[in-house]
Amino acid sequence: IDRAIVEFEGDFFIKRFFVTDSHGNKIEDLENLERIKRALAEAIGGDGDGTVSVVKSTANRGIVVRRAGLVEGFGERKAKAERMFSLMDGFLKNDPFSLQKDILHHVEYTVARSRFNFDDYEAYQEGDAALGNGGLARFSACQMDSLATLDYPAWGYGLRYEYGLFRQIIVDGFQHEQPDYWLNFGNPWEIERIHVTYEVKFYGTVEDVDRNGEKHEVWIPGETVEAVAYDNPIPGYGTRNTINLRLWAAKPSNHFDLEAYNTGDYINSIVNRQRTESISNVLYPDDRSHQGKEMRLKQQYFFVSASLQDIIRRFKEAHNNFDELPEKVALHLNDTHPSLSIAEIMRILVDEEQLDWNKAWNIVCKIFSFTTHTVVAEGLEKIPTDLLGSLLPRHLQILYKINSNFMEELKKRIGLDYNRLSRMSIVEEGAVKSIRMANLSIICSHTVNGVSKLHSDTLKMRTFKDFYELWPEKFQYTTNGVTQRRWIVVSNPSLCALLSKWLGTEAWIRNADLLTGLRDHVDNTGFRHEWKMVKRLNKMRLAEYIETMSGVKVSLDAMFDVQVKRIHEYKRQLLNIFGIIHRYDCLKNMDKNDRTKVVPRVCIIGGKAAPGYEIAKKIIKLCHAVAEKINNDADIGDLLKLVFIPDYNVSVAEMVIPGADLSQHLSTAGHEASGTGSMKFLMNGCLLLATADGSTVEIIEEIGSDNLFLFGAKVQEVAELREKGGALKVPLQFARVLRMVRDGYFGDKDYFKSLCDTVEVGNDFYLLGSDFGSYLEAQAAADKAFVEPEKWTKMSILSAAGSGRFSSDRTIREYAERTWKIDPCQCPF
Ligand code: NTF
């Protein structure tokens, strides 16, 4: 028996099902059919006559796999029900009081009786809260899940953007950005705290005041905005501990501008009030370029000021001596975006709480720790002093004072090495005088973290060398991780059940180290068979999605080869596309007999480009142009397909990652600080094709270099290769592919010219040309492994088995023990 086919009646009711053999013939053997029917009905909670309610199907665990193993439905209805299933799978997992089941029965009842169909509901279906850009934000979300699950007493702070990251739509192969007004139909998961509000001030002047005969500077702000707290509870898994993500929304302050009202300028004063509301309106969509925009700076200060007022208020409720602050409060700067909090907390302690400067500084330096998520110095955030001085005049003064104290101390330590002093200064002199937020963060933090071993080495040897030499003890690395609760349990329920079955426990959900236990079963053919079934099921789900999104039908026997992440030159999606062009070119020039030996591929690319990032947008367009050519070439058929999945986001990732056979992580060595996508693929038994960059180096330590396809220049070689410039050797295949694009083989010759220029010999900063040869070799090795399914499956199992170290639980435990020095704090009831 190959498959059971299910026909749906309405959207949720199974009308009929039957089974087929591997040739698709219906099996009429009634005894067999009865057995299957019973198993299926039992699995989905019905009464065995074939008319069963799907909504009840996932009420207990384990069912998912049985259902998954048996059911392969077709068409839209199936896709909808499947979506409903996966929604419920996550929902029903951990429900000690069966409340959610009751709710679902209610939903079932309501949906079944209403005159709407599923599509009507779908329009209101909750989407992602896309409150971040890429790796940095998604990593934070994983950290929150781990903090809660491991019972740590922690809060996250952020902004409640009304417009999350733009929705990407593709028109004619071009990216267009559409606003994501995600709060339109409400957000049931948040709790508005109308009583938790703080005033945040901007602009104004600094004036001298006399305090006990001493002169003190005090800020007289010019504009006031109200920050309102919205709490988003984050429940831990298998614990009652629930932590909070407090997001701030801007509201106009209730302090009326009496002057304006009295002079009759009513309308204008309302317009001004509305302007202040816009602070938390929209997320800036550039993930690593900082343009020194006023609104962005306002957002950062708004976030920092409200959060610190909240933290200090809670501290003061229970304590009256700021000496205790470092014992009670640890503040972690997740990249430099909140680093204005250093100046703000100094302002609060010195100006408002009237602590002596040195005393305040000593306290503050014990509170902060810092993680940087960037590699290159140019990527670090700088704020023009003009902008800062006008928006936050008192903070600029404080920053100057922190810097002059630091410079004095530094001179004592290193002497008058002016070059080094100027490199380490918080203030960058130059065409645009600015504040270096990373230098500020390092100076004030007791610990500076990199996000992988390689990244940390780069920070110590290159980016922050001067600081490392001054304070070697501050520098640590804490390798990133991802939460298996989202990336296996929620997004891959079939794998989840399989893991629990073969590991004999669900404990891996809270302790990912147990995944190493899979190694014990790698030689068991039964296990490997089930493993393959799970992958196939997930490929099916992905194939349906691809067909719905792009109309391209893909073969489940092909290797699903995926690259999904933000589009960046350093991530080298272009290398992937060039590889695909090369593969296509080879197929076209191949003898028909030889084609039978070729491994069919479905190449899947997805990711958003920052709206102003021209080259990234051209990469998206090229991907579509190449796809158009290949997918419409009947001569090539299933041997090669290329699909661009639009609007890559967390929900899409949950579908794509479990269905991938191979995933690509192609950053030029030394450019990806860590990379967390690779960890999600690894957990889902997807093989990696990658450069020795970021956390891949540590992944190799866990799974061994035999279980992934490594290629490309090593980080130590990159500088030398760049120096060679025009004298660099580039394979002929690369030149040929480049020529094809230049000559207009995929159309839009003029449009692609500037894109081609970026990888021309002598100009190829990210070394696509010099890595191309070894990239093709790695691809060939992947093809070779794929035709041996047992070998491939073993590699896949060993990948997942080695993924435990890349759980964010490990990351968080390291931060808690080494950086924050906090203990778990279990909920007492
Ligand atoms: C990203 N940084 C890095 O580019 C990734 O390598 C890393 O895995 C994640 O942070 C998480 O540490 C950013 O997104 C940013 F914004 F800092 F550039």
Q: Can you put this structure into words, describing what you see?
A:
With 829 residues, the chain is α/β, with parallel strands linked by helices. The protein folds into 3 domains: 3-122, no CATH class; 135-285 and 294-480 and 816-820, Glycogen Phosphorylase B (Rossmann fold), CATH 3.40.50.2000; 486-806, Glycogen Phosphorylase B (Rossmann fold, 3-Layer(aba) Sandwich). Helix content is 46%, strand content 16%. It has a 6-stranded parallel sheet, sandwiched between helices. Strand 19, helix 24 (614-631) and strand 20 form a beta-alpha-beta unit. Helix 20 (493-503) packs antiparallel against helix 21, helix 22 (573-588) runs parallel beside helix 24 (614-631) and helix 22 crosses helix 29 (732-742). The radius of gyration is 29 Å and the shape is globular. The protein starts with a strand and ends in a 9-residue tail after the last helix. Mean pLDDT is 88; it is low at 6-15, 42-81 and 83-100. The chain binds N-(trifluoroacetyl)-beta-D-glucopyranosylamine. N-(trifluoroacetyl)-beta-D-glucopyranosylamine is lined by residues 134-136, 139, 287-288, 335, 373-374, 451, 480, 672-676, 694.
Keywords:
829 residues, alpha/beta, 3 domains, six-stranded parallel beta sheet, four-stranded mixed beta sheet, 33 helices, 23 strands, 46% helix, 16% strand
Give the cofactors and ligands: N-(trifluoroacetyl)-beta-D-glucopyranosylamine
Whole-angstrom Rg: 29 Å
Helical segment tally?
Answer: 33
Apparent shape: globular
Mean of pLDDT? 88
Low-confidence stretches: 6-15, 42-81, 83-100
Query: What is the CATH topology of the largest domain?
Result: Rossmann fold
The portion of residues forming beta strands comes to 15-25%
Distance linking N and C termini? 50 Å
Q: Tell me the name of the CATH class of the largest domain.
A: Alpha Beta
Q: Which structural class do you get from the secondary structure elements? A: alpha/beta
Strand order of the largest sheet: 20-19-18-21-22-23
Catalytic activity: [(1->4)-alpha-D-glucosyl](n) + phosphate = [(1->4)-alpha-D-glucosyl](n-1) + alpha-D-glucose 1-phosphate
GO molecular function: glycogen phosphorylase activity; pyridoxal phosphate binding
Pfam families: Phosphorylase
Keywords: Allosteric enzyme, Carbohydrate metabolism, Glycosyltransferase, Pyridoxal phosphate, Transferase
